[in-house]
Amino acid sequence: MKEENTHILIGPFSQVLTMAELPETGPIADEQLQVLENVGVLVYEGRIMQVGNYDKLLQHATDSNYIFHKIDQPMVLLPGLIDAHTHICFAGSRANDYAMRVAGKSYLEIARSGGGILDSVRKTREATLVELVDLLKKRCDRHLSEGVTTCEVKSGYGLTTEEELKMLEAIQLVNKHHALELIPTCLAAHMRPPEHTDSRLYLQEVVTQLLPQVKEQGLANRVDIFIEETAFSEEESLEYLAAAKELGFEITVHADQFSTGGSRIAAEAGAVSADHLEASGEEEFALMREAGVVATVLPGASLGLGMHYAPARRMLDGGLCVAIATDWNPGSAPMGDLLLQAALLGASEKLTIAETLAGITVRAAKALNLTDRGIVAKGMQADLIAFPTDNYKEIFYQQGKLKPMQVWKRGREV
Ligand code: NIG
Ligand code: FE
């Protein structure tokens, strides 16, 4: 009997945090969390059919088509985690950059001297498709085992039509066979490649040559750009994003990491999310709020660069929808541990447990414009994770060291 065609009853769980019926933007008090007790989840064809009292669900489970995933210790169930911003398709290490940074050079100085992102570009170009697939797959294995069931992955270390396509193909290949669901994003506008002297001409080439192929081959439906002094200017970014939108892509932006400006472009371009935002203030919050842009903060990059976190508390108080992602990349954020980073950010920024959890589940889904996950409720994808505890407050209290013991993707235990 194939599991996909069978009802699966999972439980009982001591607590289920559904993450349902929470405000889409702004602060969330822990009292607003829906915490259900002694709960079972009924799954059919990868989707949640019912969430309710375990004993009642058991009484109705008389059909021979039922499979039971009996949970026999105290466990807390959550929706699978969503990492809404990563660069995990890359080859090579940037340990040398790290050594230079801790010895006093800044991220931007290293970038200007040809290190940084361009170093990863060289190494990723040298890697074959098969090698990239293998590297990406290993990172996906780790993410999935730590409870991440959906993960955005950017290109951006190719920076030629051919090499960007190679990266996106590697992402597509892994996505076909891996239980971790990948959401690809074309970040050909990560940096001006060394072969080009004019960034505008490079972006034009991306628009006329690469993006149509990305669309045609179904390799991604999201486009990202890094707006910063060492990358692309506000003006050229706005032009580029308008062209990408015209081609039918959703927009996201690397904004306000070191200097402001990017979030304004995100708002003007109608981006789904603006990510980083370490340098953002009240003015930027207002622009993003009015344009309905999700603010995705990346604590891993702050940890890697030894700089302050994005002001997540003030963003929430300013009425924004805040998502939290790892930015897992070889340069500024090689750790890639979403739970741990969310816990550290929450402690420093004084986020409630509800706000932090929402940032890596339901609000992260919003950052990716996904409406079928991030919540444990009827009709949602059955992406679920269970922690070995009877109290959800233990999860961030243990600073990311308490990991999920069981993970289900579309109702299948992985
Ligand atoms: O999100 N800021 C630009 N891009 C990445 C870093 C990528 C890298 O350093 O390789 C980021 O931090
Ligand atoms: Fe990034």
List keywords for this structure.
414 residues; Urease, subunit C, domain 1; TIM Barrel; 2 domains; 8-stranded mixed sheet; 8-stranded parallel sheet; binds N-(iminomethyl)-L-glutamic acid; binds fe (iii) ion
Indicate the percent of residues in helices: 25-40%
Based on the coordinates given, report the CATH architecture of the largest domain: Alpha-Beta Barrel
Q: What is the total tally of β strands?
A: 16
Uncertain runs are: none
Helical stretch count?
A: 16
Q: How is the CATH topology of the largest domain named? A: TIM Barrel
**N- to C-terminal distance:** 18 Å
**Structural class, please?**
alpha/beta
Overall tally of domains: 2
- Morphology: globular
**CATH H-level homologous superfamily name of the largest domain:** Metal-dependent hydrolases
Question: In what range is the share of β-strand residues?
Answer: 15-25%
Give the biggest sheet.
8 strands, mixed
Q: Identify every distinct bound molecule in the structure, by name, code or SMILES.
A: N-(iminomethyl)-L-glutamic acid, fe (iii) ion
The CATH top-level class label of the largest domain? Alpha Beta
What does the radius of gyration come to? 21 Å
EC number: 3.5.2.7
Enzyme class: hydrolase
GO biological process, one term: L-histidine catabolic process to glutamate and formamide
Pathway: Amino-acid degradation
